Structures are given as structure tokens and as C-alpha cells.
Predict the 3D structure of the following.
Amino acid sequence: MIATIRGTLVQREPGNDLVVIETDGGIGYAVSIPLGVWERLPGPGARCTLYTELVVREDDWTLYGFDSATERLIFQRLLSASGLGPRLALAILSTLGPERTVRSIQGKDIAALSTVSGIGKKRAEKLAVELSDRFADVAVAPAAAGARSSDEAVKALTALGYSPAAADEAVRTVLVPGASDGVQELVRRALQQLARR
């Protein structure tokens, strides 16, 4: 099993969940990563470390990477759900992030889980029931007031017809660190951001 990869980031394409890391031994690994990890990675040529999970299928071997051991653990727990493959687990982490994923499953937040592309209300309910006890030992910080407001703003934008990814990106773009903006203010600024595209 490949548990971690440490090396130089060779390729990092915008809008792509695939990065290539070359180790000191000269081996290059193509690694699929969630959106949050992609945003936190340094630019090409910089050193980085990813915690990895190798998923082997009949016709495919794919390496998935995370910048923390906790996020990898969350990915592994998501894979333990019946009928949930690695691509959908990656989509959950890309849309919700690791902490919000755990909080949504433990709190049975069907609305949040349903914002993930490929997960409808019934599947979200099934995931929440099946996985809620499997995350009991995963420690995540409780949602701060600003995080709750941003979650609600994303839900409001998806209700208006925006994709979960576009809504989440717009809300993150307009968030002011340390500010305690309400949901309405976040939605207003996010709509302005979306209108500029």
C-alpha cells in the first residue's frame, strides 16, 4: 500500500482533480484529490506531501491524495458505505470539505449532503443512517457561526438553481475572514460574484 507521497509538485491544472508528484527517486505519481486539497497545494515546483489511498478495481488502479491523515480517514469511511465509490466520495469531500462532511453525516443534515452532485435526497438519507455511527471517533471542530452562515448561504444559492460547486466557490470568494456576516448578506454578495462570470 502507498500511504504517503512526498516530492515535487510537477503538474497542477486548474479545474482538474489530478496532480502529478515526482518523488526524489524520480517516480511520478498521478493523484486524484478533492477541490479543497487542490486549493491548498503550492504551485508547480514546490515540495509537498500527500496522504494517499490506493483504490484497486478490476480495470483501474487510482491513487487518491489528501493533505491530512484525518481527511484520508474520512474518505476511507465514506468508501465503507454500500454503493458509494471513490469518485462520489471525492465529490462529497470536494463539495463539503472534511469537517462539514462529518458534521453533515453525524447530524443527518440531508440538505447539505444533497448539494453533492450525484446524491439525491433518498441517497443522502441512506448515507446519513448508514455512516453516522462510523464517524463517532472522528474529531472535528463544531461549526462556527460564520461557517453555519456560509453553509446556509450555499443552500440558498443551490435552491436558486446554482450548482453546489459554483455556490460554494462564490460564497468562499466573498467571505471576509473574521466577519460575522449574516446569510442574506453572504447570498447578496455571492449573487453579485456569480453575475460577474
About this structure: Strands lie at 4-12, 18-23, 28-32, 47-57, 60-66. The mean pLDDT is 86. The longest helix spans residues 145-159.
